[in-house]
Amino acid sequence: MLRLLNLELQKLLLNRTSKVLIFISFILPFFIILLSSLKINVFGFFTLELGELGIFNFPIIWHLTTFFASQFKFFFAIVVVSMIGNEYSNKTIKQNLIDGLSKKEFILSKFYAIVFFSLISTVLIGLLSICIGLYYSSYNEFNIIIRETNFLLAYLVKLIGFFSLCLLFGMLAKRSAFALAFIFVLYILEWIFFGLLTWKINMETAEKIQNFFPLKSMYKLIDQPFQRIAMTKFPDKNDLIYDYAVHWHEILIVLVWTTIFIFLSYKLLKKRDL
């Protein structure tokens, strides 16, 4: 495993574009710190400071930071599809196989790199959340601090699942731009299929089925936190209540999709004439 990971890291770090994109994908989530210190002057009457509103309290901070950080995953997605595109355009994929790397090891090297960078991103977001939370949170009890840290696990699984999908589309298209376009097409197709379901069956059942779709299942791992924040400010409004928790069955769905994406990537490479 370490040999394959080291091989992939060497390829990525020797590529200038990949290094820049990796750096950006790790740095951008830290703009959440700027959000926490943001002060908004409301028509000169008063100043609204987000950090003082309680939205960075434990345990909600885990939900907030992982949701916002996951929005920046497209930068590393470009790295994933590029590392496949570069393999084909530079003919390194054929050379690697000639040098003794099996097709299974080739796919695994990409997957190990995905897991590696996803783990680093998760650790960074965890440290960032701890720092912001300890500075702003009104609660410092250990059991409250570690409550809902399962959002970090959801974040990790979400990244691995999404990047594995990018790997599959990269293998399918051989070109970065086309691979990213496939993701957009898949997003459109999921909503078209959902629309057809709502036409045939009731909305509630259609939404339950939609939660099994690849992109939708990844999104469901970390629901939007805005409604939850509103709930803390208006606890008497029952219409704001929704299920924002991380559920194990949602994690399992994404893990199954991840397995399918990696398996299909391998099968595609195995059948393809290089």
UniProtKB/TrEMBL annotation:
GO terms for cellular component: plasma membrane. The chain crosses the membrane at residues 20-40, 60-84, 111-136, 151-170, 177-199, 251-269. Pfam families: ABC2_membrane_2. Keywords: Membrane, Transmembrane, Transmembrane helix. It comes from the Bacteria. GO terms for molecular function: ABC-type transporter activity. This is Excinuclease ABC subunit B. The lineage of its organism: Bacteria, Pseudomonadati, Bacteroidota, Flavobacteriia, Flavobacteriales.
